[in-house]
Description:
CATH architecture of chain A: Roll
Structural class of chain A: alpha+beta
InterPro entries (chain A): UBC, UBQ-conjugating_AS, UBQ-conjugating_enzyme/RWD
CATH superfamily of the domain at 374-404 and 462-488 and 519-661 and 696-714 in chain B: Tandem AAA-ATPase domain
Distance between the termini of chain A: 30 Å
Structural class of chain B: alpha/beta
Enzyme class (chain A): transferase
GO molecular function, one term (chain A): ubiquitin conjugating enzyme activity
Order of helices and strands of chain A: HEEEEHHH
Oligomer: heterodimer
Family (chain A): Belongs to the ubiquitin-conjugating enzyme family.
EC number (chain A): 2.3.2.23
Shape of chain B: globular
Number of strands of chain A: 4
Amino acid sequence: MAALPKRIIKETERLIADAVPGISARPHEDNLRYFDVDITGPEQSPFEGGVFKLELFLPEEYPMAPPKVRFLTKIYHPNIDKLGRICLDILKDKWSPALQIRTVLLSIQALLSAPNPDDPLANDVAQHWKDNEPEAIAKAREWTQKYAENLVPPQE
Amino acid sequence: MSYDSYDFRNNFYSNAESSTSSSNSSFFDTFIVDDKSNSNFTSDYKLRELQSFIGSEVSLTDLKNLLNASSGDLQKAINSYYDNNMNKENLVMSTPTSLRRNANSTNYHSPDIEVPRKKSRKNVTRDWQRKYIGSIVVSGQSVIEGEQLINLKDKITFESQVYFQKPIRGRKRSKLQSCWQSTVLKFKSANGTQLGVINDNRISFMVSNLLDAGVCEFEGQILLIGNENSDERIEFNDEVFIEMKIYILYAAFSREPIFTISRENNRAISNGPGSVADHKANDRKNAILSMFEQCGMKARQSSVLTQEHKQAGTLDAEKIEEHFQNERWTGFNSASSIQQNFFPNNDEEGGPNMSDQQLNALYEKAQMADMNIPEAEPPAHTFLYNLRRYQKQALHWMLSKETLDPNQTTPTSLHPLWEEYEFPVQMEDMTEDSNSNKFFYFNPYTGELSLDFQKVDQCRGGILADEMGLGKTIEILSLIHSVKYPTIDPDQCDIVDLTDDKPSTSKIRRPVSLSTYEAYPAIKTTLIVCPMSLLSQWRDEVNNVSAQNTMSVEVYYGKRRNWDLKAIRARKVDLPDVLVTTYGVLMSEFSDEENKPATSPLFNVEFLRVVLDEAHSIKSRSTKTAKACYALRAERRWALTGTPIQNRLEDIFSLVHFLRHEPWSNFQFWKKYIQTPFEKKDLRALGVVQGVLEPLVLRRTKNMRDINGQPIIDLPSKDVEIEYLDFSPEEQDIYDSIYTHSKTKFNYFCQAGSILSHYAHIFQLLVRLRQVCDHPILAISKHAVVEDDDEEGINNSAFDEEGNLNIDRLIERFMTNYGERDHSANYQIEMLEKLKYGDDFSSRECPICYDNLVNGVLMPCMHSACRQCIMEYFQSQELLGKSGQCPVCRRGPITENDLLDISKRIDNNNEKITSDASSSANNNNTEFDDDDASLKLSAKLGALLRNLNNLRQENKMTEKCVIFSQFTSMLDLIGDVLTKENFSFVRLDGTQQQSDRERVLRDFKKPGIDIILISLRAGGVGLNLTAASRAFLMDPWWNSSIEDQAIDRVHRIGQKREVRVTRFIIRNSIEEKMLSIQKRKNAIACGLGMSKDELKAHRLEDLRELFS
Lengths: 156, 1108
């Protein structure tokens, strides 16, 4: 494997030095391309109070190709499937090398605040969200409490 | 009403340095205690001291005010009191604005100069504080309820309150207008309890504004309560009838102009509508008008025009402006700034343009009477030139303009903008002194009130608008020689004895005028303001026409500006007779903010006269330069220009305002009577302008004839010929390929309907075509990617011929492709600026690899990245089937060709970045590979060489030549060719410093140097090239007047030989088409201002014609 590109090193340094509130991303010891991420549920959302674990992986072609991100914590959200895969345009066709890990994670956090049930990849969650939003939100809150730790917010 | 502390300094001429008070200073010093400590004690103490000095007839309160006004300075207070007929009322009057304006001028009081007030009779006594104006009956609603609450005949007071409501989102309205204001007028009983409100909006507006402005006082009496109950009981919401007496306050009458509306510092003119002060002033004015109307006050004396205005209800300047603004906004296409750049004639600022026909009509009338002017002789022993006949006529005319016409200064002629009113007499006033003012004066245009009679100001000056090259300079200098000192007779009229040409100092009794702001009277200095390139020319001319030691001239410019105001005041410096400076200097030394008064000597000195050369430089009244010129102080004011009206009617206004030609110099007036009708295509407007201009303007043209039918000036003939040339086959090829390409583009844009917004792009193409006509090499880039896979066979990038980065083409490209203006445009512009000034790009970070830029490139959107990173990205995009785009902003599609190298090029080519908008070619020496055989001559170069060789052989080069071109790169080429052929030449262009240019011009006059290369623009302004008699115009310009100006450099007074001009045009090329467009432009009778659509249509036609 080629030596880690300068970009990744720089990004990692900046992530640690200048962290975004509510988001923590730390590289794995064994594999510096693999990051353990914690995202705090944004306020005013049903995910409030929860801390969600994600994994983020920088493929070989990064930054030409987008990082691969996945939720590890179970979450009830119309754009996140039961495997934790995220439906977000910048992770797919709207990716640009000018984007970085920081911006990706911020976008995901924003996605939590603003679920978009009209996404074609909608599963039953999205349907539920559309049919009966208050109920869906309540369920999301329930799941947050059940699965997302709400004890310790991400530390830096 | 509270009194602001009043600074005496500016109304009383006490000079702290004068000898009379110096002996007192030490005496008083002992009494002056630091005010901060125990101020009460000290002020009492001082009061008593003051009283003991002044006497006990002055009341203590007055003394207190006096002391306060002198800021606690005992000495000053005493001086003030004794120095002048002190009016008690001056203590209480507050006119803060005028003082701020005076803050810069220190006191100057020379014992032998009396200071007459210019325009008014003083009203010395004041024994009233308010005067009754009238009374009206208003109705209001009560807000109280109860018995025995109101007594009829109780005194009522009024108070107004203003409420702001939600802002309205208006288009570009001033902040003040965007809030909805409503006023509530309350009336209260004598002890302060609120009794009710007046609901009538008109009344409440009027009253509250008048109260705010401190103009009036109101007293009321309840007449009647409109309810069925007994008089004793009052219910809520009962209607109450009140008699409201209106008193106008003494304080409302000003000695000096109020707020910011003044004659000299006319903000209402310069800043346009919408400033807070303007609104307040406008409200005040409307309130006063309303009050007069309500009280039935009619003017005793008022000009006819004012009456008309009143009837038409057009005195509200704001409404006029607003209306104007609205009209403007519907038409203005703010989206495309390209239009601004490329439709310079259609500037929305001042309205539609005037056609040439109209201009001529205007001038004609002014010129008619001019043939019969008698002649005047300048003082022969100081003025060395022999004036031509028409110049003597000009001298006579100018002298008569400068002289005050005794007929016009009779005391009874009221200024046409002011009205005279009589104070109504009421019983209460009978106790007043019979001396008290019977009349007052009101200016319904600005809202000013005054107790002083407003005389008409005469404009002592005019516009000398002789055509270029007729010798305006000489004419003005003869005027300066004729009248170096003002002469006064006791009636304050200035009559110059025209036959007496000895300026004798014994005639100086008083300066003609000392402005109330105590500018130092530079009574014999004429200030000349001119463009920078003419500075030395003026100085030299002064020296040339004046006999030894008769006229001193100084140049006020650059680092060696040495007019020290203090030294002048202390009379240590001898003032020159003529002071020359530039518009740039004027502008930079001017400050029009009230808080920062100008400290420059230029504005603190009252000149004998001020002359603006090329006065069309101030045609836009809102520029700082124009404002600076308006602020210059001199009674005699002249404007010199070959073209007083370049494009718009507003150009004239600026001059009229500068000249202080009343009442037309008042903007409201001008607008109402001239500008607005003109825009509405009212033909009478032209007539009015003619009437205004006629007395002011003197214009003669070169081909005019005098009384005897002889031409007024006999210049040698001017022969303009066009030499048609043909391309060589190679040139033809190149031209054709570019032409076809351009045409395709043009058609493409035509179809797309976007032609006018891509005007810049098209223009660029046209420029290249024209360059090819000069020489193909100017238009070809060595590094051009002229390959077939590029859809545009031509290099569309921002590289110019040498593959160097050309900022202006970048800009053009930017504007054409990404013409939408959004906020990211700011980023782009910023980047462009950085590029232009050679920012160091090596320190930037690539957004892809996060490393310093390696082979940095710029994308069209101005974002940067490493070349490799970007290429990699593009490739990955391609694999996904997508086109290249900018990684940062996603703008696209972009190909590799669109990338601009920035890393190394900039450093090497910093100097090579050109800012000459007309030339998209390299400025400095174009480097031609030496392996190219010696430079191939293009058709034009060949023809030029032929002509020059002919001259050399036939005439042994007795004729000097001037070669004009718009493209400095062409001048480079010509220079190379000339050197090779052993011609000696000099060159003048826009990049040279003033001193260099002077040197070049001097060299040209010497024998041995026979050719001068000039860039068309640089040569246009005022240069004197009469040493040459042959001119070559290498390439045509869109506007024939620019070419004419250039030719006039040679064909003007001082030219002794026949002038021959040759224009080179390539047959069957775009140049021929340009010629026909030129002809058409000259012949067009546009009518009273074309609409925007018509103009657009014309542009389109022009372009179509070019590409037909």
